[in-house]
Design goal:
Layout lengths: L2 H14 L9 H9 L1 H12 L2 E2 H7 L5 H13 L3 E6 L5 E6 L1 H31 L1
Antiparallel strand pairs: 1-3, 2-3
């Protein structure tokens, strides 16, 4: 392979990401989407826009601090749009961006599979124990 082909190959790999590389910028994004709270927030927002308190109620067990952190991460990654309305008291809506809706479909696919396979997964745990 010529040096220019090798450089182009490296550039192409860098552009699309390499999750197995320790310094790949896609790793934090994967963490944000597949963390327990990131996944649950994405599922909740896939239904439609929510206010903060609505999201907190829908995602049972999440603290205000963790919800705020999760929303910030997903917003920074471009998956969530935060809209603050100029009213008193403050009114903020959160919704998925087009890219967020695309990512949510993949997250939903995985969670659907987990729920459908749950009896088998649990049975496997019992036999392994």
């Amino acid at each position: 392979m010529s040096p220019s082909q090798n450089a182009q190959d490296l550039f192409d790999r860098w552009q699309r990401g390499d999750l197995m590389a320790p310094d790949c910028p896609s790793r934090p994004i994967l963490q944000h989407l597949t963390s327990r709270w990131g996944t649950l927030v994405m599922i909740a927002l896939s239904i439609g826009p929510h206010r903060f308190a609505q999201l907190r109620r829908r995602v049972g067990g999440i603290s205000e601090r963790m919800l705020a952190q999760t929303l910030d991460e997903l917003e920074d990654d471009g998956f969530v749009l935060r809209t603050a309305h100029p009213v008193v008291p403050p009114h903020v809506d959160y919704e998925l961006t087009p890219m967020g809706r695309e990512a949510a479909e993949h997250v939903l696919g995985l969670t659907r599979w987990i729920e459908a396979a749950l009896p088998r997964i649990l049975a496997g745990r019992k036999t392994a124990a």
